[in-house]
Amino acid sequence: MTEPSVTSPSSSWITHLTLGIKAMGPGVLMAAAAIGASHLVASTRAGAEFGWQLAWVILGVNLLKYPFFAAGARYTAATGESLLHGYLKQGRGYLQLFTGLNIIAAVASTAGVCMLTAAMLTQFIPLPIDWLALLVLLSSLALLILGHYQLLDKLTKIIMFVLTLTTLMAVALAWDHAQPLASNFVSPSPWQWAHVGFLVAMMGWMPAPIEVSAWNSLWLLEKQKNQTVTKAQALLDFNLGYIITGILAVVFLSLGALVMHGSGEHFSDSGAQFANQLINLYSQVMGGESRYLIGIVAFLCIFSTTVTVIDGYSRTLAMGWQLLSATNSSEKRLTGIMLAISALGLLLILFFKGALLPLLEFVMILAFMTTVIFAWLNYRLMTSSQLPQADRYGAKMKLLSWFGLSYLLIFAALFVYWYAFIK
């Protein structure tokens, strides 16, 4: 008679951990999409110009947007469908509204992150930023079309690990070598009308545009094609990715506050000069010999953002088209949408002629103004009778959602007033 196998507590723990790591992916991809312009640009710039004053704003924005981002993982884990299926069940007009806004956001966001990636490449390749942007787009498309989701999933995990480790090291070193501010230096206040545009831009992409919740939903469905992902694993994966984005946002702000704040140096609007300043920021605290290493890591970070942005928006638009036209899914359609988004994004880059910060500010403000609608769509879905009672948002999440919606509406109205009457 064969003795039953006994699993030791340690091996059981290792097995659960291994399965948990394998189940991760959509949340990490979401973090990779978020840790781009909002972190490297907006958070670092916030620290450089205003010191620590906006740290609580960054944390607050991440908290207030949480219910709307969590909808992607929670709805898909509960129903086995994407958020877009949920919008359609609410009414055809809701999905049409979401898809229409996504077309605009897809082109603008692709242009913004692609130019930032090209700006990083200027530190290594002596070509005009427009040509480098084309090279970035072609490389991204080749990776997505040939490697599909599986390669994107594996590559992103490695990049995220290296970026997180390197950035934490840089901040730890900056903390040790930070110079005290001059006794007569007074930090400028961000709470002035002149800074409303920057504040709205920073919050628009902090931690990312809310439509990223739909990407998370579609990536989770893609992940489930290859392995089983439980509700608990899906939520853990999302929460881990979301927490990482929040922590790193403050870390990047810290780097700007410790190294640039009070130095009299300001980030340039030029893409190439901005990239040089950002890399110098790291090399000042990690040593000049680390310049190329930091440049490569920063480039990989932004490149992964570009790839996930193109993939996420394309999948969302392809699914929207499929549901609205009642047709089957098609790889050719997905590829065609990727090509169209990339081509229109390149045209937008050419229009801004290498002016990185104005382009990114335009994209971030656009994201903030559409965020209210995306947030409302997700809240409506997560409190609807379509979901089983156990999977709907409870009292705490509803309360947080209403705080979040109120904050988004107030700042949107404030920005419109500033733009119309004060700017």
Automatic annotation (TrEMBL):
Assigned keywords, A-Z: Membrane, Transmembrane, Transmembrane helix
Database matches in InterPro entries: NRAMP_fam
Entry membrane topology: Multi-pass membrane protein
Pfam families named in the record: Nramp (PF01566)
Main location: membrane
Residue ranges of the TM segments: 21-42, 54-73, 94-125, 131-151, 158-175, 195-219, 240-260, 292-313, 334-352, 358-379, 399-420
Taxonomy, superkingdom: Bacteria
Localization in the cell: Membrane
Protein name as it appears in the record: Manganese transport protein MntH
Organism whose genome encodes this protein: Shewanella morhuae
